[in-house]
Design a protein that fits this description.
two-stranded antiparallel ribbon, alpha+beta, 2 helices, about 90 residues
């Protein structure tokens, strides 16, 4: 892994950032948590790459709030493109 930021997918829409932070804190320092509302996914940034790897290995494909978590390294955000409308 190159980044300490993780993609967390297959979340229920009712999951909060506090709940997500709580389960990741067992694996190290959680720097940032973002849940994308009504999309079923979010992002967790850990303190180090090693902590992120440990959390991903431990939590990927585990049950959380009745759903199986899908955890992977977050891809860098692509710049938004401007679309011209005629």
């Amino acid at each position: 892994m190159e980044s300490s930021k993780l993609y967390v997918g297959n979340l229920t829409y009712s999951v909060t950032e506090a709940q997500l932070k709580e389960i990741f804190e067992d694996f190290g320092d959680v720097k940032d948590v973002r849940v994308i509302e009504r999309k079923g996914f979010g992002f967790v940034e850990m303190g180090t790459v090693e902590e992120a790897e440990k959390a991903m290995e431990a939590l990927n494909e585990t049950d959380f709030e009745g759903r199986t978590l899908r955890i992977d390294e977050a891809r860098p955000q692509r710049p938004r493109t401007e679309y011209r409308r005629y």
